[in-house]
Design goal:
With about 160 residues, the chain is α+β, with helices and mostly antiparallel strands. The protein is globular, with a radius of gyration of 17 Å. Strands 1-2-3-4 form a four-stranded mixed β-sheet. The model has no long low-confidence stretch (mean pLDDT about 95).
């Protein structure tokens, strides 16, 4: 397992994550520029999402750790948070990930770049993150949407 520390948060990358990136992007069969960019976009997208959770946890005094494994990532922390704080930490992953939708959208809308390759990367980044945010907000545990739904059901039902 590979590990690194970024913004004061330990990140662990399990070999299963690398395997999924290789298969999902097609890098195992074609080491092309497009597939490498796709793999980087996928990894950055996931890290941005998990850092959304991690920064919220740090705000509440927790010590988070990010694990990239299998089909995604998890952020864990060794601190007891209130239910409301847990809810906010859960919500911050998808919220911060929407930045990876809004920024490319605005750059494309205002034609900031003339380069077709850059515009394709921005468009792909936007589409990938729209998919991941919607998928992650499905009300299924262990996804964030499942945790958010559980919070509301326990509070209001």
């Amino acid at each position: 397992m590979a590990s690194f520390r970024f913004f004061g948060v330990n990140c662990n990358v399990h070999p299963s994550f690398l395997l999924i990136v290789l298969v999902f992007t097609g890098l195992y069969r074609d080491l092309s520029f497009v597939n490498v960019i796709l793999g980087l976009m996928l990894t950055v997208s996931l890290l941005v999402h998990e850092y959304g959770h991690a920064f919220a946890a740090i705000y509440f005094g927790a010590k988070p750790e990010i694990n990239l494994e299998g089909f995604g990532g998890t952020t864990s922390y060794r601190s007891h948070l209130t239910e409301k704080q847990e809810f906010i930490v859960t919500l911050c992953g998808p919220l911060i990930q929407t930045v990876l939708i809004i920024i490319p959208f605005l750059i494309l809308k205002f034609h900031f770049f003339e380069n077709d390759y850059v515009n394709r990367i921005l468009y792909s980044t936007m589409k990938m993150n729209i998919f991941w945010v919607i998928f992650n907000l499905l009300p299924i545990i262990p996804l964030d949407g499942g945790k958010i739904a559980r919070y509301f059901f326990e509070r209001f039902c």
